[in-house]
Amino acid sequence: MSDYFLLFFGTVLVNNFVLVKFLGLCPFMGVSNKVETAVGMSFATTFVLTLTAALSYIVNNFILLPLDLLYLQTLSFILVIAVVVQFTEMVMHKTSPTLYRLLGIFLPLITTNCAILGLALLNINEGHDFVESIVYGFSAGVGFSLVLVLFSSMRERLAASDVPLPFKGASIAMITAGLMSLAFMGFTGLIK
Amino acid sequence: MIISIAIAILTLGILGALFGSLLGYSSIRFKVKEDPIVEELDAILPQTQCGQCGYPGCKPYAQAIADGEEINKCPPGGKAVMEQLAERMGIEPQALDGEEKPKLVAFIREDQCIGCTKCIQACPVDAIIGSTRQMHTVISDECTGCELCVAPCPTDCIDMNPIALTTQNWQWDLNRIPTKINTEL
Lengths: 192, 185
What we know:
Helix content of chain B: 25-40%
Distance between the termini of chain A: 17 Å
Strand content of chain A: under 5%
Shape of chain A: globular
Number of helices of chain B: 5
Oligomer: heterodimer
Largest interface: A-B, 21 and 15 residues
Low-confidence stretches of chain A: none
Radius of gyration of chain A: 18 Å
């Protein structure tokens, strides 16, 4: 049990997908203008990350491994991700229109989020078993959500503050992201 | 060599077919019936997204009409849109909500414009051009007279002027003679 906790906090804080591994940077910069949209994106991504972790594990261990087709990993994982995203969208549209409206365009956008494919491949590289894969996927999602919401609330404040002209807009956002990344580096010593 | 390629292709093919059929099945199983009338009503509305009806945009208003809201709340559409809505919904045309105002068009007094771009952001139909610290102006052909740009202006330099009558926009005020078409023949 404590292994799972370690894995969880390790992934959320120490090996954060966005700020330490630098995966999924495009939604991190792209949808962080408003807290509301950031929250929507976080939920969608966490959901898809968790599902993808489970499914890609199944595909890898029960189809690709016995058939000795490991070189097809990337291709089949992309297939899995696309299907999971599409399927989630359909089910959500049917079962929870409110959530569907909230997530809106972000759901299909996740298909091309590199954090998802990164997660599927990292799960294989680190040799996680089934439960570990799911925990890893979920905690990657939580870590993504954490930094995305933090960053978007900072950007909302930045939009209202008096930023010197050369730093206005994208450049101050980049600097903020860099500082956040530095701050997250400070967690490195947290778990050995 | 050939065999391993064949296995790879076959595996991916089966995987793809499996996922494809899953998606195909779920697209039928989880089909969401969207009220087709909302789309049609939305097509009638002028798409200025001005919010004068009290809804955040044309689509929400179309949804509200489908749910039984009054059809006379769209000032940019005016009488023409209201009549089309009445026809589509199969109800009697209603008097427009409030006085029908003369058609207005926004005008920016350019000597007072400070170039803040706030009106540009407010305009739902992109009828205002200009950039930061440059004076702005209104493309009067595009302006729907929704007055959304008036409130954000920090120097109050936007006027709503009635459209000057020209040969281009003169409306012949003729009484139309209703003709009856016998459809049973």
